[in-house]
């Protein structure tokens, strides 16, 4: 039988007769389905009793999810902690956090009897019981601090109504039932207290490298600030390294979150400032304040980044991120995104990031390289698109020139788009054949940009191609979205972390402007309307005046997948490697990677909801 | 336990100890997996002991497949008869009959021991055991005439290596092992005697309408001809109705196949000749003979069509196909396709079709309507395409004008393309929303064109749209394939059988030629090459001179899904309904039909091959 102990176990004084009741019911059921269950539950208790990953689901911290991933079983073990159980709750997953077409585990009670079941919601948000129960209840435990529910879910069930748990972002949803309900169907999903939380469920199984004995730590944290009572705040705080701080290697870092603020601190980043300025002003305030000195915009080199649900970040044992020493700025900028939807007032916070570093330099400096699209308006997305694709290339010609013969190793990646981004993937191609996914997020959200360790380190050699594809949704927009720096313009970027560091900082592309010009001419000639796409008008203006019928949309797609590109194969954002980089041919792909079809695992056990003895639930 | 009796059971004198041995082994295994099997085998014996559908697999008739479909179980029951078992056989399914990436049931023997297992072949044709055994062996029986293997396969297993059994054509493959093999992996799939057979596995469950007492029959059969000793022959034979034969209704027909020729008679059709000619010459010979009178080309109105594996065809009880009477030709043409790959000589044949007809006319005359694309070169497929899509429309405007207020009922359909056709589907759309698939074949083959009864009768009302989509493969072609009558030109047609008959014979479309002209201009201007697409050149010539880069391919696709269409809403092939039919807008679809995701059923039972006691197998 799986363990019913929770992790981080607070001293437990459970009313033992209830636990016994629950356990006995569970035993009775198991007796019935014993033969079948035995087959499936073999080794189904989580290895170790703990759930290493934890995230608050709601901003008040009433619901907390801990989990563990078993790759051999292709399953996730969940422990859901409910501080104050009313008449049940919903927990589940959906494509982008919506409550329609969602896959839900539901605990509901009519006040006397409680049930746990696997359900799905249709396009109207109506709940239905799944014909197969794939959220497999393993235990329930009442403790003084609240209720613990332990359940298991395989990544891929055989139920077409179920969510497929994949790498990358997973949109978790929750809802709290505040009134008794007599059946699952009676739950009105639009009338309940509910919300969403994004996490990377399938954390990679990383072996933690040995840490040196001379390791030191440094905390870059907010100086006991008051979190503004508004939904969204980006807080900026400037810190600095000691004078004459010599070169060190950052070898790991971890979040420092002020107790009680776990649900408010959404993500944090530490940036190093540009070395060309001798000093930077001290600043401690919102990043969008009029008082913020402009020079802070020159603090953009990422040293560390953390987002909710992430754990400590470890550099591979061969490499560290250089900081300190000559040619490196002493100034650091801490940026914290506070997400405070309930507009709490007067909350103090001293969160930040703890850097672990060593003076015993590792063999290699780690570097960061930017892949994807150049920030230029020639790459645009028509309005009203559901899933428009733009692709940025790092060509064989550039890697041939810029990478060492022994290649580089990519070990982490941070995907980046603006608000229309929905998916990002980078694929490594060699000799025209796609070889390996570098990083992929099919449920990417611009609101959840973590640096993610890769499951597998990716070796890139001279002559390899790195192809980054972003999918955008512009359904709610009425004019074209062009590439650029603005929040309503778009980007398609993958910041890859690798070693050994090279001079190549940027390997990105954009369509050749001459071919785009032919496109605007074609739009003029083919369509009956008269469109002003005269060359003296800016590219965004030309895009804004295109009549977006299906033909003009399709031909733009065709243009992007046919026209030659302008390559940015750069040492820094302004300095290109020597060579001809205009009108370069698009990489040709003769063999695509096969989408791995995950083999589904039907969950054994009852196909009906499980009754739970939680006692009488009270109405306030 | 499922019955081990075969259908049409010939007297059985099985060596009973062997049967007992097999049964005992089977029982031992069942004992082990009893609990699981009990769950799954409930009601798994075919209802009735018979297998109503039957087809020879190989041209010598050594292998014969009978089967039955259980829609409640979503499973097919197969009975494979092997006349002369050597050292095993392969039977399976694949996308288009290839032996690579195929899903196979394999019976193999090392001379002493025999095994039955579910396997798959990779892209190189190498066999591997499936991790789950989804061809579920139900029984094996030695009889004097040969071996019967009985097994079951659900439509959709949970194994991604398995073939999904769908409506429409299924490409069955078989192979005969003539030497002992020591393991599955040792089978060299390219070195064995093998072949393919196309069938519609999922026959619809039609209720047979009551037949009238005055029903008469008429056989239209070949007059004891000698089948030519060549692989492919289309034989033409002219028959005629009696003088002054009054109007009758054909209410069913069935094949008459000369015993022994079951594997050679591939398909047969009876056509009625055009009424405008008073007489037609008698003819009995190959259809492509120089001696065949030209006038036979005017015998194209289908009265009956049968293909291998098909059974009797029944008209719905409200309708019959009119023949005889004034305004109807007395002349009929029988066409038989003989497929004789082993080049047998001197085989006599009197196969044909038996028509069942009645003078008591049913309420409605049945009619045939042609949906899809007009036969014109403006609809073209670039060379080297894997899956190029062309779509033909029957618009709301045409159905509004031509259909009765009470609508029509489509009950059968015959899909038609030339050699590049790979898929055909017709969808019914109402108010811009796709409502129902009329007929779909995702594994369509131009070599297997049956009239198929629909699973569900489709009601079409004035204002509805019928959209027919064909997918073509031109990988092996070096120049564009244009629409037309030639065998290397293409068609996209669905002949739908419906009642009550209307004047609408043809509801088809093609792209507006003016827009195609703009396309050729655009190709000239956008691309750097100089292309001769001057208007004095014919459309096929213009297509043949397009340089087929990805841009020109994509833009042609965009054109076809954007440009207005020319509608043929015709009473007969030359007479249009009154109205404006040029430059019509493409139907807009606001809601697509969801592809039904069939729920997979994991097959219970052992995940390893099953040993079979077939005794020692002999080498010749």
TrEMBL record, chains A, B:
GO biological process: dopamine catabolic process; norepinephrine biosynthetic process; octopamine biosynthetic process
Record-given protein name: Dopamine beta-hydroxylase
Pro residues bias (residue ranges): 599-609
GO CC annotations, alphabetized: chromaffin granule lumen; chromaffin granule membrane; extracellular space
Keyword Oxidoreductase attached: yes
Residues annotated as domain DOMON: 61-177
Cellular localization per UniProt: Cytoplasmic vesicle, Secretory vesicle, Chromaffin granule lumen; Cytoplasmic vesicle, Secretory vesicle, Chromaffin granule membrane
Topological relation to the membrane, as annotated: Single-pass type II membrane protein
Chain segments carrying region Disordered: 596-620
Subunit architecture: Homotetramer; composed of two disulfide-linked dimers.
Keywords: Catecholamine biosynthesis, Copper, Cytoplasmic vesicle, Disulfide bond, Glycoprotein, Membrane, Metal-binding, Monooxygenase, Oxidoreductase, Signal-anchor, Transmembrane, Transmembrane helix, Vitamin C
Classification via InterPro entries: Cu2_ascorb_mOase-like_C, Cu2_ascorb_mOase_CS-1, Cu2_ascorb_mOase_N, Cu2_ascorb_mOase_N_sf, Cu2_monoox_C, DBH-like, DOH_DOMON, DOMON_domain
Pathway entry: Catecholamine biosynthesis; (R)-noradrenaline biosynthesis; (R)-noradrenaline from dopamine: step 1/1
